[in-house]
Each structure stands twice: as C-alpha cells, then as structure tokens.
Design brief:
The chain is an alpha+beta fold and 203 residues long. It is built from 4 helices and 16 strands. It folds into 2 domains: 138 residues, Lipoxygenase-1 (Sandwich), CATH 2.60.60; 46 residues, no CATH class. The strands form 4 sheets. The chain has a 6-stranded antiparallel beta sheet with strand order 3-2-5-13-10-11, with helices on one face.
Length: 203
C-alpha cells in the first residue's frame, strides 16, 4: 500500500521536529522542512496488515519557540499542520482526520498553570504542543475509502440523531445517510458490497 503524508511545517526559531512511525517502525525522524513548495511530503510503501497505524509525533518544542508581542499576540510559532493522509489513491476525508486523537505531552510549566489539561485533543490538526497524533486504518485501501464514506456521514450527522421505533417496536437511534434514516447500529452489520452498491445507486 502506498502512503503519502502531507504536513505544513510552521517555522519559529527553527523548523519543527517530526517522527513518523508506521506499524511501530520509525520511518522518518528529523527536522520537518518543506520539500514540496510550502509542504513536507513523506511517501512510503508498506505491506499492509489487517490493522495498521500511523503515528505523527511533534517533539523537541521547549516553549521559547512561541514568540508573542507586547499584547500577548502570537507572532510566530513552531508547529506541524497535518494537511492530508493518502492511502494509495484515496485521500482520507478531513472530517475523519479531525476525529482522531492527538495525545499531548504537557510540559511541567503547562501543568503548573493548569493541572486539569486533557490527555488528548480532537478536532485539531494544528500540532503546536509536543505530542503524538494517531491514525488507524485497514489493510485494503478501497474498502477503507468506503468505510470512510460511512464514517464521514456518521460524524456529520452525530448532532442530528433522531429516535424511531424499528419493526419490532424497539426504540433505536437513527441518522440520515444519503437522504434516508439509517439505524445507527447498521454500520456494524453493513457489508462493504452493500455500502458500495448503496453509494453507486446514489450517484
């Protein structure tokens, strides 16, 4: 499986450091400098297994790299912005990337300021803190694409859930998928062929 990771590095004092690990093997470890216009692009090919994972670690930030003016406004920062993950020819939708966790490594000073800081952050692809972003995916990029379509619909409709009674009279949660109400548990039962057929019929 071909993997392409696109990161926008943000410079302050020096370039940020990144460690990219795929299936527990460190593939890249060093300064994240642009190598394709304004972006750092990393490409590799792996023998995909049933469950795979990518870890993107931002490290070596010591705090002095965040430069502020007299009003406390940030002038420059040292950070990574995850722009895209592409499996073979399939780009992972942004909403899926945003839904995955970034595990923060708080500094002692940050913890002194506030002890109740969360261990992980979601809905954020700007890695301004030291920490690790994790993305898991299956071994078949085509199947992953269709699973992502379903997951994208689920996330997009998470605040639009409704309740209705199924044919047995049981109260179930439903969400809208391609204009129809679908049992929220259906994603555990639907086959990839059924999903492919459904998507094809909607085109």
């Amino acid at each position: 499986m071909d993997i392409k990771i696109i990161i926008e590095p943000v410079f302050s004092v020096k370039w940020p450091m990144v460690r990219i690990t795929i299936n527990n093997t460190v593939c890249f470890d060093g300064a994240c400098e642009p190598n394709d216009n304004n972006f750092f692009v990393y490409k590799t090919n792996i023998d995909a297994i049933e469950k795979n994972n990518i870890e993107i670690e931002h490290y070596d930030k010591k705090g002095k790299e965040t430069v502020v003016d007299n009003d406390g406004e940030v002038i420059s920062d040292r950070a990574l912005i995850l722009k895209s993950i592409i499996l073979d020819d399939f780009t992972i939708p942004d909403v899926i990337l945003y839904d995955r966790p970034f595990y923060v490594i708080w500094t002692a000073d940050q913890l002194r300021e506030s002890k109740d800081r969360p261990k992980e952050i979601k809905n954020n692809l700007y890695f301004g803190y030291n920490g690790t972003y994790r993305f898991e995916f299956g071994g078949d990029s085509a199947k992953e694409y269709y699973f992502n379509l379903l997951e994208k619909e689920r996330i997009a409709n998470v605040h639009n859930k409704k309740e209705m009674r199924d044919p047995t009279g049981k109260l179930v949660e439903v969400f809208e998928f391609t204009g129809r109400l679908v049992d929220s548990n259906e994603k555990d039962n639907i086959t990839i062929d059924q999903l492919y057929e459904r998507v094809n019929n909607e085109i």
